[in-house]
Design goal:
single chain, 353 residues, alpha+beta, 3-stranded antiparallel beta sheet, 46% helix, flat, disordered C terminus
């Protein structure tokens, strides 16, 4: 096996590992130790799996992944996977849909702040689940109101949309990303409907037309879908941007200095647990569930037989150098795909599927 230019995935910094260990301890103290263990040891060498093709004998390395929303390292793979599953059926609907219908990316903001619902005891490492439950109920009601808002405005079987939620970056404020395929819906009317449907929680609305703002030589749909999926799947952190007000930035910084970043990350995990990343309705309903088998050999499509790293070394009578080389080749390919994906989002180019 020839070694590629990139030898292995970039090592996690001590600060990042310390943060993961702190989050794992909080998750374990709140009766979710399994998720904490997976988060702490995500993509750790020695815990992965190796698949061997039954036909061509090609070997594929799959690292141990936690697949949690709070994990930034799992986000890129999730974004690429969900984008690849959503884009073809959405494109087909658009090509067969009404002429006046367009694909829109709509952002609906709220006055709901995550920090208002986090209560943490540093001595016992316990979070107030009742307060997080109140926020979960608010999120549920707002997502339902968004669905009703579009269904009442467009009583048409061609209308379809998907809704995802995000916190931040301005003071970890709750807002929703909506990928909607519908008729004429001006920003002023969206904002008025949102203010009514949200029962006082709605703030403002922002609209991006896919054909105009995501236009590319081969079509805007992949870039538009990929951008929305990136926003709702990417790991949530305590970030803030230069556009935020001084009060918003100070509140995030003061909260982190008071309780640390780990309790906020753990609270986000419990809040999003069981909530779908991208909820679809109308003509988009269950589009992403139509998925092909992605567990076949990437070269010939044959069936893979999976083994743990230890089992593979025993059966192959290989050395640690051979296992490290197998990790390096697969990690470098994975990194190249993620880098290409991020570059496409930056340039608004179609994402390779």
């Amino acid at each position: 096996m020839e070694q590629r230019e990139t030898t292995r995935i970039e090592e996690r910094t001590p600060e990042e590992q310390q943060h993961r260990a702190a989050v794992a301890a909080i998750l374990a103290a709140n009766d979710d130790g399994n998720a904490g263990f997976n988060y702490e040891h995500c993509r750790e060498p020695g815990r992965g799996w190796i698949g061997t093709c039954n036909d061509c004998k090609h070997e594929v390395y799959h690292p141990h992944s936690c697949d949690l929303r709070i994990c930034n390292e799992c986000a890129s793979r999730r974004i690429a996977t969900l984008t690849a599953r959503l884009t073809p059926p959405i494109t087909k609907l658009i090509q067969c849909g009404p002429k006046l219908y367009t694909l829109k990316h709509i952002i609906l903001s709220t006055n709901v702040c995550l920090l208002d619902y986090i209560e943490y005891d540093p001595d016992t490492q316990l979070l107030n689940m009742d307060r997080l439950g109140e926020l979960r109920e608010i999120v549920r009601k707002l997502r339902v109101s968004i669905r009703h808002m579009f269904q009442e405005r467009f009583n048409d079987p061609h209308m379809g949309a998907g809704v995802g939620m995000e916190f931040g970056p301005g003071g970890l404020m709750l807002h929703f990303h909506v990928l909607a395929y519908c008729g004429w819906y001006p920003r002023s009317l969206i904002q008025a409907d949102w203010a009514t449907a949200s029962e006082g929680h709605g703030h403002w609305a922002y609209v991006r037309q896919a054909r105009r703002e995501f236009n590319t030589k081969t079509g805007p749909w992949t870039a538009a879908v990929g951008y929305v999926v990136k926003e709702v799947v990417a790991g949530i952190g305590t970030k803030y941007s230069k556009r935020d007000t001084t009060a918003q930035v100070h509140r995030v910084v003061d909260t982190i200095s008071e309780m640390g970043e780990a309790p906020i990350t753990a609270a986000i995990h419990f809040l999003l647990k069981g909530i779908r990343r991208f909820q679809t309705f109308g003509s988009f309903y269950k589009l992403s569930n139509k998925d092909e088998d992605r567990c076949g050999c990437p070269l010939c499509g044959g069936k893979l037989t999976w083994q743990s790293e230890i089992e593979w070394m025993r059966n192959q009578e290989s050395t640690t150098e051979g296992l490290s080389l197998l990790r390096a080749n697969n990690f470098s390919t994975h990194q190249a795909e993620e880098s290409k994906y991020r570059q496409c989002l930056l340039l608004n180019d179609p994402i390779p599927i």
